[in-house]
Design brief:
Layout: H1 2-6, H2 9-25, H3 29-45, H4 49-65, H5 69-85, H6 89-105, H7 109-126, H8 133-145, H9 149-166, H10 169-185, H11 189-205, H12 209-222
Helix pairs in contact: 2-3, 2-4, 3-4, 4-5, 4-6, 5-6, 6-7, 7-8, 8-9, 8-10, 9-10, 10-11, 10-12, 11-12
Length: 223
């Protein structure tokens, strides 16, 4: 309200993004979509191309979450085109990673792998490792889907190391779950046990009953 009153449209764009992300976390998808579309409209009006890339990726992610991969793909592709035009390494990485999620959601893990690996190249060029974490986890899941478990382990290990460095607990949980499942699938039960125990220890340290339940269930299945 204050930013509207003083006419600060770049600040409004940023706040709409934060509102959209918060509403999406609360599963209030209609309000989240409205916020993301307002974010995008302001970025377009101001010809803020980097803002358009983030706005489109936010909107596409929400559409994918709502079960509309076709619409999400079109939005991600628009974001990728803008990122290519302004030579944004991070924007290209983000858009390609999200296109990989569309491919995975529509039953094309091989295409998803290609998108994720391309995204990681752009993220490395952009510098900073935090952006790579979720992409490595998604890559591990895609390799697991086609039963290429050694490749999945490599991806999950990268994700786990980067997530620990960044203190990113949700991605640590995802990587540990993926590692335990991959080693179990390969019959390497002692390795799997080690990662399940790490998973359980982390869950207990975070007082996460949901993650403790999942880890205990995996531990029981492993035994």
């Amino acid at each position: 309200d204050i930013y509207r009153e003083i006419g600060d449209s770049p600040a409004q764009e940023q706040v709409y993004e934060y509102l959209g992300l918060t509403y999406a976390t609360l599963a209030r998808f209609d309000v989240a979509e409205d916020a993301f579309r307002r974010q995008l409209a302001i970025a377009r009006y101001n010809e803020h191309f980097q803002g358009q890339i983030y706005g489109l990726n936010n909107l596409g992610g929400l559409l994918l979450k709502r079960g509309n991969p076709t619409a999400a793909q079109a939005v991600f592709e628009e974001a990728l085109t803008i990122a290519q035009n302004i030579e944004s390494q991070e924007g290209q990485g983000l858009s390609l990673s999200n296109l990989g999620q569309v491919a995975a959601a529509t039953g094309n893990p091989t295409q998803a792998i290609a998108q994720y690996e391309a995204a990681l190249i752009f993220f490395r060029r952009a510098g900073g490792e935090a952006k790579q974490i979720s992409t490595y986890n998604h890559l591990g899941a895609a390799y697991s889907q086609i039963q290429r478990y050694p490749a999945a382990v490599t991806a999950y290990r990268f994700a786990l190391r980067l997530a620990k460095d960044d203190r990113d607990v949700p991605n640590q949980f995802q990587a540990l779950a993926g590692l335990s499942a991959s080693y179990t699938a390969m019959g390497l039960y002692s390795d799997a046990l080690g990662f399940v125990n790490q998973w359980l220890t982390l869950a207990e340290s975070q007082d996460s009953l949901r993650q403790q339940l999942m880890a205990q269930r995996s531990l029981a299945q492993l035994y």
